[in-house]
Specification:
Blueprint lengths: L1 H20 L6 H9 L3 H14 L2 H30 L2 H15 L3 H10 L6 H31 L4 H38 L4 H30 L4 H6 L1 H27 L8 E4 L4 E7 L3 E6 L4 E5 H4 L4 E3 L6 E9 L7 H15 L11 E7 L4 E9 L6 H20 L10 H6 L1
Antiparallel strand pairs: 1-2, 1-5, 2-3, 3-4, 6-8, 7-8
Length: 429
């Protein structure tokens, strides 16, 4: 019994030391209790200290820059742009417009005119940058006010300063990472406009760079938390074995999904909007491709969300990339006209050539032959290929013209189709 009680005491002391050294465990509820049971003297002290620290002019300036900078600069930009149109810049713009139209490049002209707008100018980007910096400064200002208020009711000044510094660093680092992503996306979009055929590759690179920026931001934030507060590391050490196993397994699945997604995006097998047939029977249009999952819009309009790990190794047919199609058509004749069938088929072939300009007559078979002698009829098969993808409105219209051409050829040859057989009545007798 003595040993058991000693072990329990040791475990209790170990847990207590972990909780005391943790960043949040056991401290949230006590903080809220302290805030909700403030006395009148505490409230007076908070208001006094905060009012002494606040400078109204500072808040007005930050609010004005944060919310009025962009529209104010926009008004000035519009005024200067309108004034410039009346001078030499207007003449140059008209001259360049005439030259561009003579070169028959209306699309590029439109994009140049769009670039002249305020929202697409460097002036606008600078105004947004200044505005965001003012808003961030206002957030830091408010954080300092909270710190002053908490210090007024007895919280440790050193811990509060460390908290304020940590909040400021994380806030500005997150904003800087977001600005890097915005600049990157801007240049990626310009690259896409110059080379539309590489749109999917550019999108992949853009997503990979986004993940890289977020990963670096996360690592930097964890370093700051470790240095400033030791956040979560003592608690994680306490549950080390289990958490490491869980994270390891989750990371394997995540890494496998991301790797498969990158492989699918770079392999040129299919892109968003392609009509595909997968080996497991899934058919439809690629609605959206992600690093972990792919959405397929089936032919009935429903959206199928599939993990990339289930698509990576599958066989598929990309119908959108298929430039030719095959149509096999079978018709039946009576045995009485079997000797007339070959001549009739030649007439049908001529009708098909006239009605279907996309018909392939070289390199692929174009046949119309007797293919089987069934019990009650002679079977004829037309094997035709066309320079058309095997989907879409043009494919179905061409298929219809093929059937009508065959029918015209049969009627020109003076033949009739075999009559349908009532198999149920035949078997009953």
């Amino acid at each position: 019994m003595g040993k058991t009680s000693a072990v329990k005491e040791a475990v209790k002391e170990s847990v207590s030391s972990v909780v005391n050294s943790s960043a949040l465990a056991g401290k949230i509820s006590s903080t809220f209790r302290a805030l909700f049971v403030l006395s009148k003297d505490d409230i007076d002290a908070i208001l006094t200290n905060v009012c002494e620290a606040i400078h109204v002019i500072d808040l007005i300036v930050l609010c004005a820059i944060g919310w009025l900078c962009v529209p104010t600069v926009g008004v000035v930009y519009a005024f200067l742009d309108k004034a410039a149109e009346k001078g030499k810049k207007k003449i140059k713009r008209v001259a360049s417009t005439i030259t561009s139209r003579r070169a028959d490049s209306t699309t590029s002209l439109d994009s140049e005119e769009d670039d002249d707008s305020y929202e697409n100018s460097y002036t606008y980007q600078m105004a947004v940058l200044v505005s965001q910096m003012a808003k961030l400064a206002l957030l830091v200002y408010l954080c300092d006010i909270v710190v002053i208020g908490m210090h007024s009711i007895g919280y440790d000044a050193a811990d509060l300063r460390r908290m304020s510094t940590l909040f400021t660093k994380i806030l500005y680092m997150s904003w800087f990472a977001r600005r890097i992503q915005s600049v990157k996306t801007y240049y990626m979009n310009r690259l896409t406009l110059k080379a539309p055929e590489n749109c999917d590759k550019v999108k992949l690179v853009n997503n990979v760079l986004d993940l890289s920026v977020l990963a670096l931001l996360g690592v930097k934030i964890m370093d700051l938390l470790s240095l400033e507060t030791g956040f979560a590391f003592t608690s994680v050490a306490f549950f080390g074995t289990t958490s490491t196993l869980i994270i390891s397994l989750a990371s394997q699945e995540f890494a496998k999904g991301v790797t498969t997604g990158i492989e699918m995006s770079t392999s040129d097998r299919f892109y968003e909007g392609d009509n595909v047939h997968f080996g497991d029977g899934t058919r439809g249009y690629i609605e959206k491709m992600g690093f972990l999952r792919t959405k397929v819009r089936k032919y009935d309009g429903s959206i199928l969300d599939i993990p990339n790990t289930q698509l990576g190794g599958q066989r598929l047919v990309n119908v959108s990339k298929t430039k030719t199609c095959q149509v096999l058509t079978k018709i039946h004749f009576e045995y009485d006209v079997i000797q007339k069938i070959p001549a009739a088929l030649e007439i049908c072939k001529e009708e098909i050539k006239s009605a279907c300009p996309k018909l392939i007559t070289e390199g692929k078979p174009f046949r119309a032959k007797i293919s089987a002698l069934e019990t009650h009829h002679v079977e004829v098969t037309f094997n035709t290929h066309f320079r058309l993808p095997p989907t879409g409105e043009e494919f179905w219209a061409n298929r219809q013209e093929l059937f009508l051409a065959i029918d015209r050829g049969v009627k020109k040859a003076g033949l009739d189709y075999a009559h349908p057989i009532d198999l149920a009545g035949l078997h009953s007798h």
